[in-house]
Here is the input.
Amino acid sequence: MRRWSRWVKNEDGSAALEFITVGLILLVPLVYLIATLGIIQEQTLGVEAAARHTARLIAQASDPESAGDRGEQVLAAVVEEYGLDPESVEVSLVCTPVGAECPAAGATLTVTVRTRIELPLMPSVLGLDESTAIPVEAASVQKISRLWAGG
Here is the structure.
């Protein structure tokens, strides 16, 4: 029984050390996960907002010139507001029926916005920042009025 009591006395304070060690081992990845998911959600909402607002403003424009200007302005505003990388944002406009001038009266406008979200704390060594980037895409569809002045 003496040996047992000596052994127990030698363990004084080790529970606190174990608690701190295990806490850090679990806490650091959990904090990284939460921060990463927050960044991904913010950028995803930004891409969706860019597609939706760009499509809406192009469809409501009075002529093709103002449609292009308004689309670029709202896209720049959304990119800035959501902290998207302006150089990685790609925008494509497609009008149906195929062959219709885009935008045109009575056409259906589809705006697709794509970007890549780089994970936080990823080093650029060996291209890890590019290989771990997450592609995000959002599309929005708007019907352009048949009475649109541009067509």
The mean pLDDT is 86.
